[in-house]
Amino acid sequence: MIAFNQVSKRYPGGYEALKQVSFELAKGEMAFLSGHSGAGKSTLLKLIAAIERPTSGSVLVNNQNVSVLKKGALPYLRRNLGLIFQDHKLLFDRTVFDNVLLPLQICGFDHRESGKRVRAALDKVGLLNREKSNPIALSGGEQQRLCIARAIVNRPSILLADEPTGNLDAEYAQEIMAIFNSFHQVGVTLLISTHDADMLRNSHVRVIALKHGEIQHPASHHEPVTPTGTGQA
Amino acid sequence: MMSAFNQHLGVMKTALRRMFISPLAGFLNILVIGIALSLPAGMYVLLQNTQNLVAQLSGSPQISLFLTMETTADDVAQLRNQLARHKGIHGIEFISRTAALEQLGENSGLDDVIAGLEDNPLPDAYIVSPIATDAKSLEELRNKLQQLPGVELAQLDSAWAYKLEAILELARIAVLVLASLLSLGLIAITFNTIRLQILTQRDEIQIARLIGATDAFIRRPFMYFGALQGLFGGITAWLIIALSLQLLRLPLATLSQLYSSTFTLQALTLSDSLSLLLFSVYLGWLGAWLSVARHLSQTEPR
Hints:
The structure holds two protein chains of two kinds.
Chain A: E1 2-10, E2 16-25, E3 30-34, H1 41-48, E4 56-61, E5 64-65, H2 74-78, E6 81-84, H3 96-107, H4 111-124, H5 140-152, E7 158-162, H6 170-185, E8 189-194, H7 197-202, E9 206-211, E10 214-215
Parallel strand pairs in A: 3-8, 3-9, 6-7, 7-8
Antiparallel strand pairs in A: 1-2, 1-4, 4-5, 9-10
Helix pairs in contact in A: 3-4, 3-5, 4-5
Chain B: H1 2-19, H2 23-58, E1 63-67, H3 73-85, E2 89-95, H4 97-108, H5 111-115, E3 125-130, H6 135-147, E4 151-156, H7 159-200, H8 202-210, H9 215-258, H10 270-295
Antiparallel strand pairs in B: 1-3, 1-4, 2-3
Helix pairs in contact in B: 1-9, 2-7, 2-9, 7-9, 7-10, 9-10
């Protein structure tokens, strides 16, 4: 579903965010992307959505090499992806409902059908009773869930989340993880970047660990976790 | 199909809403466009009217040949033959000096003065109707007729009308230049308005891009905005012109009555009005298009 092959990304100015990264994520698989900030997690996610282009190597999404995709084809790639941002990227000039409606408007959905879909998505993240609020009135956790609702309203087969629990306390983070797990159960492919030690420790999900732009070997993939982390169960 | 129509309707509503988010700014923009358009369009209407007036007043051109005082009846007859043979002339009329004096008495009410004259001061005259109607050939014909023996003075009656027409031609070019300049101004106004729009919608544009919006989708509301602003500007211009003409109509009617003329002011015709609106919509659209092409690439997501 997602395959990185010897991918390097060097930003203008010489900073090398990713070095020779190779990995594969199967269809329906869920994985964490771990590493300190600056390890290249965000860059890796941006390469999948073709927000950035790799300097070398190839990024395959659904067997399509997105690193050479024409600009005009990008919107159609992104419609197959659900993107969840750390800073939410919500629009505060419209209601919760209209925020979730935006992806459907972009795809040109029928008005009545899209109303149903928006409510279904809001229901899934537990925000159905807030549909008429302005996102500014939501708590941090609610804003993150709204961002998730917007990402899934299109029913994408792949969800990419960049530090979805980064600014949230443990309780909210668990809620969010529960939502992700429910998507995983219905066959959505998920790649979630995090530096949250607890989250990595408490789940049995595959971890792709990045350090200074390189993938760490499985033996050291708990590196970002505290030294005593592996013993917990 | 219905869905696409609804989508466009929705985009149009969005554009309208954005236009009047700050109503004063929105109205001022439209007013500026309206005034900019009404200037050349209004001048065009006045020009058109002046042209009608000139055509009405000048009618078919005539050349008056005043003969020398010493001409005899033989000379007059000879001249008639010459004129009758001339290819550029389709009609001649002779007015004898006595007839001219009587006519003068009738028209001017100066009977008493004329009766007191010892001598008839008026010469015999021929009124010549030339075939040509353009200023240049008429002037040539007049020059030829002036050379004929026995002719004291050949006068082109509608010479002033032709001069005026030449001036109108100049004015028409001036209007065209003005229209071009103000059209550029209109494009610039829209360009700038859309630039500000894009800046304020920057977040929305970036997010829309991230969740799969095509360039066409992002461009659409701005294009509608430009076109609608042009349309409202055009309507404003039309109203300004219609109102100004209405204000002019009454004093002009009084004036033309004083000159015992039946001249009435022509308003913008239907096709002129439609052209005005279409043109302003097009200019607004073009300004928006240029602005979007220039500024949208600067809002790529990072």
